[in-house]
Amino acid sequence: MSKPEFTAGLNIAMKIPKAQYEATVAFYRDTLGFEVKEDDVSYAPTVSRTHSVRFGPNTLWLDCVDNYGRPDLWLQLHTDDLDAAASKLADIGIHPCDEVEPLENLDSRTHWIKNPAGVIHLLAESR
């Protein structure tokens, strides 16, 4: 099995409780003056609304999650070999947790994982 390479992705997702969603979108749009655009959420059944924000070289996704009680931050990683990466991570006790947010209609192979502190990462294969 090859040794996988990991690189940072350009997407950051902020999962926001419904009660705080509008104020959070307004903070980035009205207070900070960032360009904020509402986007399609059909790919993520646990997200009821989403807005994208250009955040330097990254995209910050403001995801409204109706059943959340507190906000959460999710990050994206890339690997050149998803199978080798999953195996390497399993060796240290980190296993896919794809149930956190089923994804549909993606063009790449992915797994959700959690780092040792519990922060969720989307691990996507990019070739």
From TrEMBL:
Residues 9-126 form the VOC domain. InterPro entries: Glyas_Bleomycin-R_OHBP_Dase, Glyoxalase_6, VOC_core. Pfam families: Glyoxalase_6. This is VOC domain-containing protein. The lineage of its organism: Bacteria, Bacillati, Actinomycetota, Actinomycetes, Streptosporangiales.
